[in-house]
Recover the amino acids of this structure.
């Protein structure tokens, strides 16, 4: 039983770490502000969930788990809103997203 | 006798000196304040490093725990952090006033303006 | 019952009076309240001096926890003496403030002014009285933060930059002190000063102790404006409101010197500080340079307040010189100069405040003809200037006399000459002002001036009269200073 | 220190070093301010690794929270970019810094090894706090008992420092009350933020209360609670408007309350003095010394929380009200 729980929690933790790291890679890879925020904020939510889930499995049915679940719920609410606020203020200060369209698409548009 | 046993202190000292350097060399008043913050925070880390005991836990009494880290540095640093934010907020308020009356927050420009008023009429 | 609590009340009363003062809506009431508190703390300081005069040491344990676990106040003859200076100056400056700030500070800021003054007073008193190294840091920050506020209240915009510069340098100093205290704590496991004094001597030779010593010296050096670290002082004193210059100029650096003395003599001990670290060979050249340099710079100043500020740097040099001679006479000279310099600079800044009240500024040129127009104010200034020079029958003479005796005792006659030369320079820079005031006519186009109001003159003359009184009858200050000096050198009273 | 902790410690220290270097080299003020917030958060993590949970809590709330907010408000007024300056000599500062650092490193050479339990720092005063405070003061969190009782006077000084800073900020940039109608009649709507803020604020306040009254048992106490409480109001101000927030908590009330908080702390000391103990000796407050300590700590922590919360809000209002004037 403990082995299964341990294994599950490790899988969760690994998933969380993967998502977190991929978000970080995204921040570095993308060349433009909005894509970067997108990469970070999308992965962030699930990353938090997986890591917290792994930790909840580790700590079992205790007060600590309750606190962790609270943290997850609050983070789920706040972190997308934080990203929203970030992008919103960037947009209002005049940073325009780069809307590059590929040649194929523009060709299509030209035909129609 | 020089060993890696003291690595934590040395890294903290490096951070401290980086903050101190920023504080002295910066021309921009806000960057000076940031340097000051880094300097102070590193001093806090020095204190907390001194309070750590191998195998200890946070100094909150609980069943079955024998070793605790030293609580006194924690108390001192709590106080020092508060002093730090107090100083920072006062410094920032001063910066705002300086900006309003000089129109700049670059130290060299302020000094030039002061020099002009030193030679001109004095209030 | 109340008397046993006096060491605590000495600081707690002004400390708690500050928020009360901030809540009082009426400006005049706030002023009366603050003045009352300052007189009360002066009275308590006198009581403390009376109690410790014979060498007893009063101890007060906060929270009922015995030191070194709890925080302790300990009052001996040295800090009672400094308490007397600080609260005495406060008791004169507070009543003076009301009239003086009316032309220098917007009315909306009166309450803030008195609150900050009370905080500054409490912080300085606390730094002096405390027997706990970390508590000293906390109270140092209280006094520093409130003095940054007070300096920034000056009318000129340069008050802001002066305050900012003071804030940066003062915080560096405080952080250095924090590092030094931390290293001491790491070495000994205690923060109580008396306990530190017991535990440090066996550690002689420890590099950590040497580093702690260096950081504390530099930290306090910044706070007391030791020569190359004095850059914050001239502008801070020059652009602060007059009453603030008088208060901070005559107390803040004194308390920092007291703290330095406490660390050098009591905590590290004379053996470590002077025999092992040889700190007097650092202090002496710095003292000499600061006396000469600051005196000469003072000669070329346009503003009288800035002139006096540079003169303060020079006077701090005298105090350091007294320490660096490492004998009882020299230290007595230092301690006397703490007292005497507070009296003369306090008096001079207060008279300048009266000048600023009447003519709006304090440039050397602007005082032309004031000798006739404001005879009492300028008369006070002349007496204060004489005291600054060190003319017999004033307090300045007494402390310089002790310093000269100490240099002769040691056989350092070049230092004797130096003191005499710098006194001559003091004649030069004060003469410029006196000459302008008495022997030049007021420009024809200048508006007529009259004598300053009594509420400014009485406090100013109180300090000036004290200059004369303690210059003629110096037994009280000399007695206290020499027994404090003997105590610091570990002798019996 | 266990090896995993060691590893985390080293990783965090490395990140700190990189952050610091980035701060030293960066020109953009916005980046510098954000990096200094990151620096604070990282150092809070270090504090956790080194067992200082209370300190970590405070550093995260203050260093990364309040101080970053205040700095952002300031650079909003002063401008985001540093101008190119004439080359100032960096040699003299570098020499000063290197000498200072060398003295410190020299000083550490004789220090006992990091985490050595036999170091003198752990021998003299600290054992009593660790062994006896749970019975003498009667609360498990030793940091709280040292902070509030053994060294309660220092903490009173700390509250006064906050009060002094509030006085200073107030004197310098006071709060500008806008009597006329705001120039932008209708601020751009921010429905998502406002709904979320309305939802979050009760939780934040609840958390502040928890931290306030649970400080005896876990990390936390009046200072942290005060900061968190003020964060709730700061959030409200940022998502709605300053006028709304100042209608909710008018500055004149905050001013009184901040003073009252200090007086509650000092008053506790005075009461214990009147009851025959020394200043801040809580043992005399009740028949049983332990109960007395409990009451005393509860009351003074409340005073701390009150002053800190009000002072932080006032300071924030002052900064924000300046910002609106010159956009």
């Amino acid at each position: 039983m403990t082995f299964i729980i341990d294994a599950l929690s490790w899988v969760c933790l690994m998933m969380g770490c993967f998502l977190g790291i991929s978000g970080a890679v995204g921040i570095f890879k993308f060349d433009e502000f909005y894509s970067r925020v997108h990469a970070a904020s999308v992965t962030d939510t699930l990353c938090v969930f997986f890591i917290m889930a792994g930790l909840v499995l580790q700590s079992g049915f205790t007060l600590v788990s309750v606190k962790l679940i609270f943290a997850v719920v609050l983070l789920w609410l706040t972190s997308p809103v934080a990203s929203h606020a970030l992008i919103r203020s960037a947009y209002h200060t005049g940073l325009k997203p780069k809307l590059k369209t590929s040649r194929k698409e523009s060709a299509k548009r030209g035909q129609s | 006798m020089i060993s890696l046993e003291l690595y934590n202190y040395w890294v903290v000292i490096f951070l401290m000196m980086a903050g101190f350097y920023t504080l002295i060399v910066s021309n921009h008043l806000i960057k000076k304040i940031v340097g000051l913050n880094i300097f102070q925070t590193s001093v806090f880390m020095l204190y907390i490093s001194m309070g750590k005991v191998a195998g200890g836990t946070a100094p909150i009494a609980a069943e079955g725990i024998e070793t605790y880290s030293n609580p006194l540095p924690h108390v001192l640093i709590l106080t020092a952090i508060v002093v730090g934010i107090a100083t920072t907020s006062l410094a920032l308020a001063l910066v705002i006033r300086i900006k309003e009356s000089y129109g700049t927050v670059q130290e060299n420009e302020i000094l030039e303006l002061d020099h002009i008023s030193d030679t001109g009429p004095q209030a | 019952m109340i008397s046993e609590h006096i060491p605590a009340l000495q600081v707690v009363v002004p400390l708690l009076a500050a928020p009360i003062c901030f809540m009082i809506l009426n400006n005049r009431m706030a002023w009366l309240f603050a003045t009352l508190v300052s007189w009360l703390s002066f009275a308590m300081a006198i009581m403390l001096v009376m109690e410790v005069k014979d060498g007893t040491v009063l101890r007060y344990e906060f929270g009922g926890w015995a030191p070194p676990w709890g925080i302790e106040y300990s009052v001996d003859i040295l800090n009672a003496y400094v308490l007397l200076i600080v609260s005495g100056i406060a008791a004169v400056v507070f009543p003076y403030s009301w009239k003086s700030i009316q032309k220098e500070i917007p009315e909306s800021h009166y309450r803030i002014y008195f609150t900050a003054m009370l905080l500054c007073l409490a912080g300085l008193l606390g730094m002096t009285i405390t027997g706990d190294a970390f508590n000293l840091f906390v109270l140092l920050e209280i006094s520093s933060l409130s003095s940054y506020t007070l300096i920034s209240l000056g009318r000129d915009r340069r008050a802001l930059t002066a305050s900012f510069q003071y804030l940066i340098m003062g915080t560096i100093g405080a952080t250095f002190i924090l590092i030094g205290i931390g290293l001491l704590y790491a070495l000994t496991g205690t923060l109580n000063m008396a306990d530190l004094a017991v535990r440090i001597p066996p550690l002689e030779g420890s590099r950590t102790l040497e580093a702690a010593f260096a950081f504390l010296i530099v930290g306090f050096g910044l706070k007391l404006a030791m020569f190359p670290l004095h850059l914050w002082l001239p502008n801070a004193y020059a652009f602060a409101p007059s009453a603030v210059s008088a208060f901070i100029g005559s107390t803040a650096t004194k308390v920092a010197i007291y703290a330095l003395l406490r660390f050098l003599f009591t905590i590290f001990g004379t053996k470590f500080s002077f025999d092992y670290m040889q700190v007097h060979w650092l202090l002496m050249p710095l003292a000499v340079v600061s006396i000469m340099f600051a005196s000469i710079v003072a000669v070329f100043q346009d503003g009288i307040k800035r002139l006096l500020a540079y003169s303060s740097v020079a006077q701090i040099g005298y105090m350091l010189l007294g320490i660096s001679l490492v004998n009882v006479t020299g230290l007595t000279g230092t301690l006397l100069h703490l007292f005497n310099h507070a009296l003369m600079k306090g008096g001079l800044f207060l008279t300048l405040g009266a000048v600023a009240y009447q003519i709006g500024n304090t440039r050397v040129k602007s005082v032309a003809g004031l000798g006739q127009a404001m005879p009492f104010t300028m008369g006070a200034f002349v007496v204060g200037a004489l005291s600054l020079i060190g003319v017999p029958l004033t307090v300045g003479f007494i402390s310089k006399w002790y310093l000269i005796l100490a240099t002769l005792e040691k056989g350092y006659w070049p230092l004797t000459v130096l003191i005499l030369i710098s006194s001559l320079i003091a004649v030069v820079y004060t003469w410029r002002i006196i000459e302008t005031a008495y022997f030049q006519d007021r420009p024809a186009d200048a508006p007529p001036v009259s004598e300053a109001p009594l509420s400014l003159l009485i406090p100013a003359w109180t300090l000036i009269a004290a200059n004369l009184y303690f210059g003629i009858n110096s037994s009280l200050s000399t007695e206290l200073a020499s027994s404090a000096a003997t105590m610091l050198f570990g002798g019996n009273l | 220190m266990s090896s995993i902790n060691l590893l985390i410690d080293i990783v965090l220290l490395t990140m700190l070093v990189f952050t610091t270097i980035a701060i030293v080299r960066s020109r953009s003020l916005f980046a510098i301010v954000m990096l200094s917030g990151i620096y604070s958060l990282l150092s809070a993590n270090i504090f956790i690794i080194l067992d200082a949970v209370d300190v970590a809590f405070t550093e995260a709330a203050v260093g990364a929270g309040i101080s970053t907010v205040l700095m952002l408000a300031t650079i909003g007024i002063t401008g985001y970019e540093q101008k190119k300056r004439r080359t100032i000599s960096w040699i003299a500062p570098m020499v000063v810094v290197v000498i200072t650092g060398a003295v410190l490193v020299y000083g550490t050479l004789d220090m006992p090894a990091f985490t050595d339990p036999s170091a003198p720092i752990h021998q003299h005063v600290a054992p009593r706090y660790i062994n006896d405070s749970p019975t003498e003061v009667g609360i498990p969190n030793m940091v709280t008992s040292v902070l509030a009782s053994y060294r309660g006077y220092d903490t009173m000084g700390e509250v006064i420092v906050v009060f002094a800073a509030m006085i200073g900020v107030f004197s310098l940039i006071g709060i500008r009350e806008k009597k006329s109608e705001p120039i932008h009649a209708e601020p751009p709507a921010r429905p998502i933020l406002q709904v979320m803020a309305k939802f979050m604020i009760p939780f934040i306040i609840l958390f502040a209360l928890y931290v306030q009254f649970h400080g005896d048992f876990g990390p936390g106490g009046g200072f942290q609670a005060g900061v968190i409480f003020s964060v709730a109001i700061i959030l409200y101000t940022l998502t709605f408007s300053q006028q709304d927030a100042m209608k909710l908590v008018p500055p004149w009330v905050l001013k009184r309350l901040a003073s009252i908080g200090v007086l509650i702390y000092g008053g506790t000391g005075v009461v214990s003095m009147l009851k025959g103990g020394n200043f801040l000796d809580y043992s005399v407050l009740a028949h049983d010394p332990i109960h007395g300590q409990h009451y005393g700590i509860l009351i003074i922590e409340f005073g701390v929380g009150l002053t800190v919360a009000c002072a932080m809000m006032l300071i924030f209002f002052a900064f924000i009200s300046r910002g609106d004037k010159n956009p």
Chain D touches chain C through 58 residues (CB under 8 Å). Residues 180-186 of chain D have pLDDT under 50 and may be disordered. Chain D has two domains: 1-116, 125-179+188-327. Chain D is about 75% helix and 0% strand.
